[in-house]
Amino acid sequence: MGGRIAALIHEADDFALVGAVERPGHPGLGKDAGETAGIGKIGIPLAGDLRSVVKEGQVVLDFTAPQASMAHLAVAADAKVPMVVGTTGLGAADLSRAKELSAVVPCVVSPNMSVGVNLLFKVLGEVASTLGGDYDVEIFETHHRFKKDSPSGTALRMAQVIASALGRDLDKAGIYGRKGMVGERGKEEIAVHALRAGDVVGEHTVVFGGMGERIEITHRAHSRDTFARGALRAARWIVGRPPGLYDMQDVLGLKG
């Protein structure tokens, strides 16, 4: 993701890459960030600490891991530099920390930066509330074999949106895979199933199953560029905003 973001920044007329950071101990540290991203030499070495470059820019884009993202947000808050976080797998404690730090600096946090997926979040709530409780809800997500968290943050957000629209508590209604003699499907279940195979970038399908009909809504990401372009859209939007915790629904004007 870092490489694709760097490449798209390089192509854009309204962005300039001023720093790039990798995890400590990464073999690419010190090498040219452009060459690492496959766009040729740009004169910016890969740094191992965000503190060394954070004040050079107007916004930080972070696609790392939950612990690293929260550490980076603390650095950004200290430097008063807005931040966009596209890391997946953030837990309740991470989001609580993000809310605390965003009281100091504006921050966009989203498990999926795709414009299409974020439009889907809004649509799913409307579909669920219109269909009501008589339709069974099953969510399937497929990702590459290297993905570490399961289910995906996107699938969890979909489940949360649908649960909220139906007035259900996802902690009670959520089912994550099935095995054995589990009995008849519970009326209020919202099930999430994770598949891992090959190099799949990301695919999510939500099934609303009623008696006599089935509605399926699918989003397929063909390239990581869709997430990178969404992150750049969020970066354009966040600069100049007041402190606060935002998401892509805010960026796209889908709230309200």
Task: Encode the helix/strand succession as letters.
Answer: HEHEEHEHEHEHHEEEEHEH
Q: What's the number of helices?
A: 9
Beta percentage is 15-25%
- Contiguous low-pLDDT stretches (5 residues minimum) are none
Please specify the SSE layout and strand pairing.
Elements: H1 2-11, E1 20-21, H2 33-37, E2 46-47, E3 60-62, H3 66-79, E4 83-85, H4 92-101, E5 106-109, H5 115-131, E6 136-143, H6 153-166, H7 170-173, E7 174-176, E8 190-196, E9 202-210, E10 213-221, H8 225-238, E11 244-246, H9 248-251
What does this entry look like structurally?
With 256 residues, the chain is of the alpha/beta class. It folds into two domains: 2-109 and 224-251, NAD(P)-binding Rossmann-like Domain (Rossmann fold); 115-221, Dihydrodipicolinate Reductase, domain 2. Helices cover 36% and strands 21% of the residues. The protein contains nine helices and eleven strands. The protein has helices spanning 2-11, 33-37, 66-79, 92-101, 115-131, 153-166, 170-173, 225-238, 248-251; strands at residues 20-21, 46-47, 60-62, 83-85, 106-109, 136-143, 174-176, 190-196, 202-210, 213-221, 244-246. The strands form three sheets. It has a five-stranded mixed beta sheet with strand order 7-8-6-9-10. It has a four-stranded parallel beta sheet with strand order 3-4-5-11, sandwiched between helices. Helix 1 (2-11) packs across helix 8, helix 3 runs parallel beside helix 4 and helix 5 (115-131) runs parallel beside helix 6 (153-166). The two termini are 31 Å apart. The mean pLDDT is 95.
